[in-house]
Specification:
- The protein has 148 residues and is α+β, with helices and mostly antiparallel strands.
- 49% of the residues lie in helices and 20% in strands.
Length: 148
């Protein structure tokens, strides 16, 4: 009978250790997710929003740049994003405006897309350079200026 009790106690102890291990792994995963979310938000603010604000100031007389940094409906979205629009001042109010989305993937890759177009890769959150993002913004501004 004592062998049975010993085996039962060893089984209970093993289960407690596994549960403790599982909770530690889950805590680490949550910490990594939170860290990723913060890194992505910092990149969006430091690179994307800063670049859009700079472009907005440079071309204010010809092109309008609207930036929507408000939180999306998905408060716990796994991939943080912002939206923006670029359109000519000469467009009528009723003209359709393209909305672009800057999205950070879980891998850290950043892309810009709009409905009906293929997403364009503009870097990685590990790369603090805004050169690729600014180049894409310049293309979009030129395109908007031509559409008048």
């Amino acid at each position: 009978m004592s062998k049975f009790k010993d085996a039962l106690e060893r089984g209970k102890e093993a289960r407690r250790r596994q549960e403790k291990h599982d909770s530690n792994v889950e805590a680490e995963r949550d910490a990594l997710t939170a860290d990723f979310g913060e890194q992505a938000k910092v990149w969006l603010n430091d690179v994307a929003v800063a670049s859009l604000e700079a472009a907005k100031a440079e071309v204010a007389s010809e092109v309008i740049v609207d930036i929507d940094t408000s939180p999306r409906r998905e408060m716990k979205a796994s991939t943080p994003s912002i939206c923006f629009q670029i359109y000519s001042r000469r467009e009528s109010e009723k003209a359709a405006r393209r909305t672009f989305t800057v999205k950070v993937e879980v891998s850290g890759a950043v892309s810009v897309s709009s409905p009906g177009t293929v997403a364009k890769d503009v870097g990685n959150i590990g790369d603090r350079s805004d050169l690729r993002f600014r180049s894409l913004i310049a293309e979009l501004i030129e395109e908007a200026a031509k559409d008048t």
